[in-house]
Structure formats: C-alpha cells, structure tokens
Specification:
35% helix; 13 helices
C-alpha cells in the first residue's frame, strides 16, 4: 500500500510541477499550486525521507544596493538588501510548447503584426530567458553580513528586500576585513537548497558629498523608448549602445568632484540587470547601485510598463528614500523620453536646498524654453536645471548649480 501511495505522490508532484511552470496570467492560481506543491513535498519528505531540494534548479540575483549612516548620530548604519529568487526552465518545452513558440508568443504579446514582421524573428533568446523563469515565492533566504544573520522571505515575485541595522563598529570591521575598494562591503545570501551568492553594498560615506542619480534608457544607453519597435529591437536584438560622450562625462564627474557616488535608477525590468551591469562595466561608466523594477506578466507590454504611472512612483519613491536618509546634495540626470523632467521637478520642489543640479537630455530636439520643461520645473530656479543634447554642454564642476541658457 505504501508503495502505491509513494508512486501516486510522485506522479502528482510531477503533474503539479509541470502545470505550475505555465505562465498563467492568474497569479492566484500559481500561488495555489505552489502552496499545494510545497505541502505535498513536505509530507513526502516526512513520510518517505526524500529531499526534493536536490531536484530544484533555483538561483538568485543580488542587486548592488546602498548603506546609510544614521542621521541620528547614534553610531548605526542602515544596510539595504535586495534580491530575486527564481527557478530556471531548463527543459526545452512546457506542456509540449517549445521555447521558440513561447518567445513567439512574447513578441505577439509586446508588438503588433507590422512590428513582428520588422523584427523578422531575430529576437535574442538569451536576453529573453530571464522573462521565462519562475519567481519563487514564500522562500526563506538567509542573509549573512559578517557575524550578523537575518532570514528574509520572498514575495510573490520572488523578490526579497530588507533594511538591516549594523553598528558603525561592525561596518568598520567589515571594511577592514574585506579590504574592498570604493567603500564597499559584501554579504552572502543562502537559499533553501544551500546555494550561495555574494552581494555588494555601497556605503554612502562620508556624509558630505555629491550623489549622482542617473536614469539609464536614453540617458546613458540608447533605447528609443518612444518607439515600440525600436525599443524592443534595442532591448532584445541589438547590442546595448551607449549615448556618445556620457561615459566620459560621468568619469570626469567622478574624478573632479570629491566624495562622488553614482546610483542608477531605472524603470526598466530588473530581469535585464545582469546585461545592464555588463553594459556599465564594458563602457567604463562608474560603478554604482542599481534600482530597477520587476516586470510581471500583468503588464500590458514592455512599452506600457516603462510609461506607466508605476514607473513614476518607483522613481519618486527611491529619490525620496535617498534624500530622507542622507544629508548629501544630489545631481539628477535623465531624458525627455519618459517623465524624468516631471519627476525631478517635483523632487526639486520638495527638497530645494538638496538638489544641486538637474540635467535632461533632449531626445526630440526640444528647446530649453519648451513649454513642457517650463511647466515641469515651475518653481525651480532656472540656475539648477539644464537641457542638453551633447554631453559637452554639461559642466564638470558640480560644486555649484549649472548656468541655464537657451540652446
């Protein structure tokens, strides 16, 4: 009897495993199957002593984040941990549907018929793979920073996020032990399969200095976010291309301005983080922390995802997060393709003494006195913001606000 029960459970687990791999638009169904699978796994482990963890092919990405010294002068730091837990689809098909057909479905999902004809089947499958993995929800990830450990639980997108408090003595001891460059400390994340990954925390120190918060798409990387077809082509087909002159400008900023840190704030999917990090490194942009958004299949399309109100909220949230946790001055860099002028204008009105400069790259041949910019920066000193189409127009010295003028 026990053998039949064992066989039944194994078959049922296989069915559930296959079925749960389908990219259902109904998240509640997937959560139900996941809970049922986990429950059956637990019972099988207890009754038959079978450890299913060795059959799992899970992995995680740890996004470089930041650590702030407390504003209360109490000798403590707030260290931010952010990661993504997922399981890769290693098989060649799902329920008899090949990977190429899934990619074809994605193209149809994102584009119209004319766009698909234009792309002509040239989508880069490797770039699409991060969008065809399974977010692992309700899993425990153990974080180890020096002698400090803390357990985090993934949400329904497989994301885990926390602020961990450390003393200044712990931070300095870690710096001394790890001997990293550029005010960096590292930590370790351990999954339920005992798989491990190393993460990076960029310490914002000293307290005084300049932090540069930069958008990515069409600010430093050519994406053409206003064109649905070209956006997909630049994201999933062509090699990532830098905006000419921007890497040189950022390197000059880094060298010329003391205590300068960089933070890349983008509305693009964090499934593209690894490729974006490689782009930053390859093109000699300064290293920095990354703050992107997770793409879910509830989004209408990548184009709509980027231009949604959620992207506006995402950027506003992180800008307030930086400004409320530090006493630094900030330089904000973006472009006119999305809502960067409106976002940065709103923040400059909230923190008029903390925003040193705002630079907006014009991608539609706009003029400085374009009505949109005048509205977006209403109430913000014209000395603080500048519209540019060539990085050579931007000053290197960030110790004072840029001089605005007509283009």
């Amino acid at each position: 009897m026990a053998s039949y029960l064992f066989l039944f459970i194994i078959v049922l687990l296989c069915i559930i495993h296959v079925d749960s791999r389908r990219h259902s638009q109904d998240i509640r169904v997937r959560q139900f199957w996941q809970k049922l699978t986990d429950k059956l796994k637990d019972k099988t482990v207890n009754k038959f002593h079978i450890d299913f963890r060795r059959f799992d092919k899970e992995d995680m990405v740890l996004y470089p984040d930041v650590g702030f010294e407390s504003l209360e002068n109490n000798g403590t730091w707030k260290v931010t941990i952010h990661g993504w837990r997922y399981e890769s689809n290693h098989g060649k098909n799902w329920l008899g549907i090949s990977a190429s057909r899934w990619i074809e479905r994605l193209a149809k999902y994102l584009l119209n018929a004319d766009a698909i004809a234009y792309l002509n089947g040239s989508l880069n499958h490797d770039r699409l793979k991060p969008f065809f993995v399974d977010d692992e929800s309700n899993e425990i990830i153990e974080i180890k920073i020096g002698e400090t450990t803390q357990s985090l639980q993934t949400d329904h997108h497989g994301q885990f996020y926390a602020h961990i408090q450390l003393t200044n003595d712990q931070i300095q001891a870690l710096k001394q032990k790890q001997q990293q460059k550029d005010n960096i400390i590292t930590y370790e994340a351990i999954g339920d399969n005992q798989d491990r990954a190393d993460g990076v925390i960029r310490l914002i120190e000293p307290r005084q200095g300049i932090s540069i918060i930069s958008d990515i798409d069409d600010t430093i990387k050519i994406s053409e976010v206003l064109d649905k077809v070209r956006l997909i082509a630049n994201t999933f087909i062509h090699p990532f291309k830098p905006v000419p002159g921007m890497a040189e400008l950022y390197r000059k900023w880094y060298l010329a301005n003391p205590n300068c840190t960089f933070h890349y704030l983008s509305g693009m999917p964090d499934q593209l983080y690894t490729l974006t990090q490689e782009f930053i490194y390859t093109n000699n942009f300064p290293d920095g922390s990354f703050h992107m958004r997770h793409f879910g299949w509830a989004a209408a399309s990548l184009f709509e995802f980027l231009h949604s109100e959620s992207t506006f909220s995402h950027k506003i949230h992180y800008l307030r997060f930086f400004l409320s946790n530090t006493v630094r001055d900030y330089v904000l860099v973006g472009d006119s393709g999305e809502k960067d002028p409106e976002i940065y204008g709103a923040i400059a009105r909230e923190y008029p003494q903390r925003i040193r400069a705002i630079f907006i790259r014009a991608i539609k041949n706009e003029k400085f006195d374009d009505e949109r910019f005048l509205t977006a920066f209403q109430g913000v000193s014209s000395e603080k913001w500048q519209i540019f189409d060539d990085p050579q127009q931007i000053p290197i010295d960030l110790s004072r606000s840029p001089k605005s003028g007509t283009r």
